[in-house]
Amino acid sequence: MMVAVAIVLGMVDLFLWSSILYRQFFKRFYDIVLSGLAIIVLSPLLLVLTIVGAIKMKGNPFFIQPRPGKNERIFNLIKFRSMTCEKDKDGNDLPDDVRLTSYGKKLRSTSLDELPELFNILKGDMSIVGPRPLLVKYLSLYNEEQKHRHDVRPGFTGWAQVNGRNSISWEEKFRDDVWYVNNYSMGLDLRIILMTIKVVLSHSGISSDTSSTMEEFVGTNV
Fold first, then answer.
1. Which residues of 165-192 are buried (b: 16+ CB within 10 A; e: fewer)?
2. Predicted confidence (pLDDT) per residue in 134-163, tens digit
3. pTM for this predicted structure
4. So where are the chain's domains?
5. Beta strands 74-80 and 62-68, pairing class
């Protein structure tokens, strides 16, 4: 009996140590290696999308925007542009439905617009798996629990993205994000990566029920 208990305790101890090592070292190591390899392998596609994007968007094919990362540190997220820069007479951006082009819809449905984020991952702004980086203006709207989504690096994909993407509410997304922060491991990250492939191939959850992208977050009334 004592031997069995010792074995179980040893396995638990090994699991805890492996989880700690993954969180403190190996997760970032894998991010560097995998994003670097992906950039090399996908470089022809990245070049083609850059050229085609410049033609379709009649100018700069990249969308660069400040986003909050780990510990709310601001970095510049880079994506392929999927919307025009059209504005109304007061200088405000037109609604997403108006600015989103047919080319942009194809980019979003295949998640190809996200590929430049591989450079954010390589640099250390992001991770392959983690809560998605959202707008800076949302920082003041999070409640105390939701703020914990910034305890880790934001991700190229995440638990919320494979469990509804833009078809679930903000509150559901943030619950998924915080759950991930509290439970992530190498096994969970591998599971999310595999689930992401399925989601991308099925083109599911690209839009919310009332928007071609996702409605703005205005805060949680709790």
1. bbebebeebbbbbbebbeebebeebeeb
2. 999 999 999 999 999 999 999 999 999 998
3. 0.84
4. 27-202
5. antiparallel
